Amino acid sequence: MSPGDVHGDEMNEPTDVDEAAADALLAGSGQELDPALAAAVLAIRGLGTSAPPPPSDDLMQLMGTAPKRPNAPRRTRRWQAKIGAAAAVVIGATGGLATAHALPAPMQDAISRLGIGRPAHSHPSGSNAPTPNRAAGPAALGPSSTEKGIGSAVVGAPTTTAPGSRPATRPGAVPSTAAGSAPNSCAARAKHGAVLSGVSATQTCSPPVPAPTPLTAPKTTTSTSTPTTSTIASPNGGSNAGGNGKSNAGGNGKSNAGGNGKTKTVGTGRQRRSNRSTARLVPML
Amino acid sequence: MTQILCRLDLALQRAREGDARGFDELYRAHAGAVAGYLRARNVSDPDDLANEVFLRAFRTVHTVQGDASRFRSWLFGIAHNAAIDEARHRRRQPVQQTLRAEHSDVGGDVEDEALRHIESDLVRTLLESLAPDQRDVLLLRVVGDLSVAQTAAVVDKSYEAVKALQRRGLAALRRTLQDREAVPQ
Predict the structure, then answer these.
(1) Which of A148, A209, B82, B168 has the fewest C-beta atoms lying within 10 Å of its C-beta?
(2) Would you call A44 and B127 a contact, using CB atoms and an 8 Å cutoff?
(3) Could you tell me which chain A residue has the CA closest to the CA of B45?
(4) Of A226, A152, A235, nearest to A192 (Cα)?
(5) ipTM given for this complex
(6) How far, in Å, CA of A59 to CA of A55, rounded?
(7) Which residues in B lie closer than 8 A to residue A6 (C-beta atoms)?
(8) What is the CA radius of gyration of chain A?
(9) Around A227, how many Cα atoms within 13 Å sit in the side-chain half-sphere?
(10) Measured between alpha carbons, how far is A44 from A35 in angstroms, rounded to an integer?
């Protein structure tokens, strides 16, 4: 069938709609000619007046409507405000804790470099004022299960605390001295290093106080000894600090502290032997 | 009307240049009519096929010569061919071939099965009473709002043939209305 042909059955259909009426009806203006037919045409026309279907993703991308998100900027601003408020709270709280000297030592040091608060090694009232020995751990608060003997030795050595030091309020607590309390975190690190390397703590971390002179001023020198190094020596039958049978805190009047490394140079011969045995024990531990 | 055509002419010009605003304007102006035409042609998913029609059109809109009216007839030509392709595709389905066996003489019978998807029962009844060529011509003239010449170009028939088809189509509608004594509100 060539274009323009009609179906065979169409030839028999009545063509009672003339050309002018057909044009008028299809144009929507043939109401007076045939109301029913005009209404039918109008109903068919209504198919084309429906709402546009939602465009597909590809079409939206082509039309540039995909990135449109009317609420996105407002939502972004809201999140930015929340994040800013949270950051302000965190910074304020950190600053307050730093001012109150309540942060951990590394963080306290870091923030003190920003001009907030004071370093962890500093003291509130002066260079020799003691501070609570928080970072020293259980050894500073009292004898632990492994350090009970050492702790009792400390209690029994009351003469080596620095002037102005705060007395221990708990049985077995280590009297905090200017030299011993200042490098809290440093002492802990030194202890750890000493245990690992067999070298005394004062060789790896010097406290920011004048070095003691144990040979010349045995009673007034400050002690940097901590019970921790003595713990290592305890299997040897006696403490490192008490290698001479006396107190941990240099009770022999000559050793600054048995375990702080000074005994390598200033201790007695018996104490040096004790230290050597300690050094031999360290790798075994 | 002239103002709308001027606006659509501007949109067409923007679309030729690849401006997204032109695409958006043309889609809003013609998508409803194209989807309605496809729905009347009993396409299974008229909205999806309308999107496909616009995607094809927008990808080659730079080849369209003429004004917005020419673009509309060209767009309905794409929709017409897409509906025919979809009908052929559906006709290949075994189940649908069985359903179409008794109407195979009239051609385009695939659309009859989907007539139940048309919202208005009256419109469905009226369109069912038409021969496929009559239906195509009437839908393009009424729903597509194309001229006789544009319709002739879309359905690939002569001007006179389209005039005859629309006349006979209207006569068939009148007969159906008289037989059913149904007058649309």
Answers:
(1) A148
(2) yes
(3) A53
(4) A226
(5) 0.79
(6) 6
(7) 133, 161, 164-165, 168
(8) 45
(9) 27
(10) 14
Calculated CA dihedral for residues A87, A89, A94, A96, nearest 10 degrees: 150
Question: Where do the domains of chain B lie, and which CATH numbers do they carry?
Answer: 1-91 (1.10.1740.10), 115-185 (1.10.10.10)
Q: Does A8 touch chain B (CB under 8 A)?
A: no
Per-position b or e across A176-205, b if 16+ CB within 10 A of its CB: bbbbbbbbbbbbbbbbebbbeebbbbbebb
Residue A57 in contact with partner chain B when CB distance is under 8 A? no
A-contacting residues of B 25-54, CB under 8 Å? 27-28, 31-33, 35-37, 39-40, 46-48, 50-52, 54
Quick check: B147 contacting A, CB < 8 Å?
Answer: no
Cα A51 to the center of its chain, rounded Å = 57
Instruction: Evaluate whether A101 touches A117 at the Cβ level (below 8 Å).
Output: yes
Rounded to 10°, the helix B148-155/B159-180 angle is 100
Tokens 């305890």 label which residue?
A: A234
- Cβ separation of B32 and A50 shorter than 8 Å? yes
Q: Does B10 touch chain A (CB under 8 A)?
A: no
pTM of the predicted model as reported, rounded to 2 decimal places: 0.47
DSSP string covering B30-88, please? Answer: HHHHHHHHHHHTT-SSHHHHHHHHHHHHHHTGGG--S-HHHHHHHHHHHHHHHHHHHHH
For A177-224, how does the pLDDT look when each residue is reduced to its tens digit (9 = 90+)? 444 444 444 445 545 544 444 444 444 444 444 444 444 444 444 444
H/E run at residue A27: helix A19-27
d(CA A197, CA A124): 34
